[in-house]
Amino acid sequence: MGRPPRLLCCLFLSLSLAAVARAATRHHEWEISYQFKHSDCVRKLAVTINGQTPGPTIRATQGDTVVVRVKNSLLTENVAIHWHGIRQIGTPWADGTEGVTQCPILPGDVFTYTFVVDRPGTYMYHAHYGMQRSAGLNGLIVVAAAPGAAEPFAYDGEHSVLLNDWWHKSTYEQAAGLAAAPIVWVGEPQSLLINGRGRFANCSGMAAGACNAAHPECAAQVFAVVPGKTYRFRIASVTSLSALNFEIEGHQMTVVEADGHYVKPFVVKNLNIYSGETYSVLIKADQDPNRNYWLASNVVSRKPSTATGTAVLSYYGGRSSPRRPPPTTPPTGPAWNDTMYRFKQSVATVAHPAHVEPPPPRADRAILLLNTQNKIDGRIKWALNNVSFTLPHTPYLVAMKNGLLGAFDQRPPPETYAHRGYDIYAVQKNPNTTTSNGLYRLRFGSVVDVVLQNTNMLDANKSETHPWHLHGHDFWVLGYGIGRFDPAVHPATYNLRDPILKNTVAVHPYGWTALRFKADNPGVWAFHCHIEAHFFMGMGIVFEEGVERVAELPREIMGCGNKSNGH
Q1: N or C: which end of the chain has fewer CB within 10 A?
Q2: For 132-137, what is the mean pLDDT?
Q3: pTM to 2 decimal places
Q4: What end-to-end distance do the CA atoms of the chain give, in Å?
């Protein structure tokens, strides 16, 4: 016999009140400034948080409110910070995307981000203004499961790993080169960092005083483990360019989480991770405790010219000093151009059987996006369906809530391309393109499919991996393929049984990736390639959904474009 309705209501109310009572507010005070750092032993100006790069890890519990008061002490630069993977339900103005959800924080100004972390998992934050992410403004967000909530795996301790790539040129130099004709490409990174530490391979060849191999800021990070224990490694990639392969020498890794969602566990020797992705893996400390082991980060999908990024795994109680380099050569990972090796890992990443959230069986709308490299007035750009994206001067959210229709192009970008006759393996005959800051307006509550199609670049026989990140949502990854996507054939192959939910996904060389999401988070949300230079060059779009449902905007996010000077 079931419980009386009144008893059920009381039980639900008591559980809800208990959850509210447990939720905490986590306050952070941050000052953003330039400081000289030796992240890879080379002295360089970096954008720091309270003097640190990476910035402090934000730790919270599911349901907590995070409050970050940010003071911009960069004397000549604006700032905005994106909380990558946090959906900002009810707080779209806190997404931290300059030009989309807010005006930037001006030098000397203070802005407070307030948002709820509604799901446990591993996330990150980083600059979302210009190309500041590659200058050091980034860090981790770790959200613990609510008390009493069981995760589908057990472990004895945990470590956090933030992977990055690092250049010696300033972001100003990089941006100026990308906008030049002919282009001055950013090139491959000088170093790969693990938790903000690396070692420039040619330190001895630099001018006196420029590189200090003994500087404590570039000493390898040491991860300590107890023999016989199981550890969760939370791994995030905040790289500006590089797709990476991560390995813990001699220790197999069981993948259990991706972008805050539980994965059907699978075992790997090494993990492919793309910019904007996060994973959790479990390792067993079951190797010889009397020696140390490498943690290794290697470039894949681009021909690498950057030395392996390294850190050290050390066993408590062993005879080896924690700072002693392992006796072996650091692992170099799989072949950089082994696309199928990476493709198979993508396909293997599906939802945990006990945590499947079934996708809607069909979409209300399908958008097919062709990623191409193009030119405008001799300058190289990236485009979607032959339109290269530009940000408006007035943020979309501000413009739409204030009826400023002239602030951006009201014509929507194209939703498809002539896919039947398009040869994705050929160089385009006409590479010229146009720009637009128009956006896609989605019916609130509708189900949207997006298929990302990769192609050949301006150079023959060249196609790159593009990691795409959606703000404000998670999406179901329905399928991957190599070759040209056919809307009449490939949707029948979609995984509707146990697709993983993610916020960032790779589109492989000459491949396609299909995803589905519900347009149920009122606001304006960016969707873009997470490679810093590619977004800067136009590889992105913006979705609007239910903006009329958004509450009154904080005054602090305004003050630029058509909302400046009292307009």
Answers
A1: N
A2: 93
A3: 0.94
A4: 64
